[in-house]
Amino acid sequence: MKYCVIGFGGRGKLYSDYFAKLGAAVTAVCDKDRKRLEYARQIHGLSPDMLFERSEDFFGRGKLADLCVVATQDSQHKEHAVAAMKAGCDLLLEKPIATTLEDCLEIQDAAKRLNRKVFVCHVLRYAPFFAAIKNELDSGKYGRVSTINLTENVAFWHQAHSYVRGNWRNKQTSSPMIIAKCCHDLDLICWFIGRKCRAVSSFGSLNFYRKENAPEGSAERCLDCKAKSSCEYDAERFYVFEGIDKGNAGWPASVLATNPTRENIYRALKESNYGKCVFRLDNDVVDHQVVNLEFEGGVTAHLTMTAFSKHSYREIHVHCEKGEIYGNMLKNVLVCNLFGKESKEINVNEFSVKNDAHGGGDINLIKDIVDFYRNSSGKGLTDIGSSMQSHVIGFAAEESRLKRGAVVYL
Asked: For the chain, what are the domain ranges?
């Protein structure tokens, strides 16, 4: 199997590493950052003529591989996805599919017209925690799903890094928070219920990460701030730690620099948004939101997204007519109760992957894709047709939020 990559940032690098571990061959990389291209050359042994700074040159070479990994910024997904398919490639498309429903549908239509396979990176379908829930539900023992409550605890530090300082801070340049972050969660709800969503309502806002909440004496940048010692959002504390001196700094420090040395991190803190005060940026995405859903047959679901947690994790409670399943990804233990019958616990730690933000979902997705090309097998859980409903719901939820919770019928 051969693949190429456009967008060699955090996700592009991660997927490339997993493909390489499975013996797939990268043929070309495109990224506007020359340091990232040099990193790709060193790690994957690519020749200079297979490293591209301009997408026009990259796609102008025609079909470079079986699969193109599209891991550029959200606002570029439609352009790059359609161009890759026209060049002859299937896609591994980072979520969200695109930043508007119209662009999502255009990508789906192009895939049908050009007969291309599109794998969407809804990796949580492959995470052992959620795969175990799906397996239990599919057994039929629990009866029909009645309602689902799912909470995404983003974590205060993750919110600050990605959605206040980072690339997803402003919906005009990325997408609404409910799409950028929570299309994973909406996708899981759709996957478990297995019915069409009929109505959506939502409330949420940006209350905390605003200028009026800046501490007294604070500055534009954390390095210059007199209040930094008592501020939990001090960027120096976030990104400068012991691992940097040992050369093993991972995410999120690795986002600040391709080579995250102490010198490069401090340069980023002085020059980039990652060193700015979280109360003095141009962020406009919500820091908390709730979404209510009604599916065919009266099945309901509720999603809560909040920035205000210490840890980044999801917790879920699936209420069925004959039983219930609940748990959270911090403990990675599921409690499964059949009413009037047996109860059991499933310890998902036995199957999860350490140091994987999605509990093993990332590597399992890549394994499935490799199986698809090598053996014509694979589960194919995240094709664009399966993934589209989550985006339809997400854009409807944002419409409802802006209309103060008005019900949007799908």
From this structure: 2-120, 124-209+283-409, 211-275
Quote the pLDDT of residue 354: 67
**How many C-beta atoms surround the C-beta of residue 271 within 10 A?**
11
DSSP label at 215?
P
Is pTM beyond 0.85? Reply is yes
- Closest C-alpha among 230, 249, 232, 231 to residue 240: 249
> 55: helix, coil or strand?
helix
CB 355 within 8 A of CB 119: no
The first and second tokens of residue 284, run together, are: 């406009």
| Burial of residue 321 (number of CB atoms within 10 Å: 0-12, 13-18, 19+) | exposed
Residues 81-115 have pLDDT tens digits of 999 999 999 999 999 999 999 999 999 999 999 99
Burial code of 388-409, b = ≥16 C-beta within 10 A, e = fewer? bbbbbbbbbbbebbeeeeeebe
Which amino acid type is present at position 207? Answer: N
Quote the pLDDT of residue 251: 79
Residues 6+ away with beta carbon under 8 Å from 271: none
Structure tokens at 296: 């065919």
- Decide if 96 contacts 180 (C-beta within 8 A): yes
Considering the domain 124-209+283-409, what is its CATH architecture?
Answer: 2-Layer Sandwich (3.30)
CATH number of 2-120: 3.40.50.720
Please tell me what DSSP assigns to residue 383: B
- Which residues of the chain, if any, have pLDDT below 70? 242-243, 245-249, 352, 354-357
Return the pLDDT at 193: 98
Separation between Cα atoms, residue 265 and residue 278, nearest integer Å? 17
